[in-house]
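Supplementary Methods S3. Input chains for the assembly prediction are listed below.
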Amino acid sequence: MPVVGLTIAEAAETLGLTSDTLRYYEKDGLLLRPVSRTSSGHRRYDEDDVRWIVLVTRLRATGMPIRDVRRYADLVRAGDGNELQRLELLQAHREQVLQQLAEVTSHLGAIDHKIGIYEDRLRRLEISA
Amino acid sequence: MPVVGLTIAEAAETLGLTSDTLRYYEKDGLLLRPVSRTSSGHRRYDEDDVRWIVLVTRLRATGMPIRDVRRYADLVRAGDGNELQRLELLQAHREQVLQQLAEVTSHLGAIDHKIGIYEDRLRRLEISA
DNA sequence: GTCACCCCTGAAGTGCGCTCCAGGTCAACC
DNA sequence: GGTTGACCTGGAGCGCACTTCAGGGGTGAC
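Predicted structure tokens for the full assembly:
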């Protein structure tokens, strides 16, 4: 029996997640298929598993809700023929992310301005001290 | 008795929040002082209140946790003498936001790449159809 | 063979940030 | 003076995304 793939702890380490999160994602339908198991029932993550979960973490890290990641996984799992739906889902997400980036950037500008004011005030206090 | 300031509903409308959220922020110590009241106990938001809450929404919209907003409000409420602490809090937040922006942007790049692949695939299907 | 360690499951718990609810007050309008 | 509607309070409830727990294997090192 060849040793193939990563244990859950190794996969978690590789992906920057916890083992608990990996089990949770699997149970919640975010993976394309159940992760394969050793004879004793322990999970083994192969390259495809890891590649897919990297995508999942990217979607999550850009703010896609779990339920949308699951919808995307459902589409991919369904196989060929729904590429347009997948594309639309990703494009909609992209628009959301861009809007979010613009909003955060603009708010950050205002906060930066406030930081500048404090810096000035403190510089002046320093000089007059 | 002059009519001064906005009702909670008006303030909520102006700020893009709900009345419930405004009450919650006040109860949770995010405001600099209790909002003033009419003789019948209804809140009235003046310009200073609104200005402060705009800042709160900016901090929140850039991902600052409620508890940190409260810490910042505590510092401002304490008055002069802690400008350095306020500055440090804002600067730390700024760094977090920049890091977050960079991370999201990078993940978005990978997602864009995937979108490009689907677009190509669909274009080819269209042509061959 | 026993100890330590990693893994398994289903289910309950947690932290965050609101959001909703019940029951009540008040002012204005018909 | 009755009804409407905006507001009040304390407290419960909710959705999300995990995280922890209880109870139970399997396996390799000594």
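Helices of chain A lie at 8-15, 19-27, 47-61, 66-78, 83-128. Strands of chain A lie at 36-37, 43-44.
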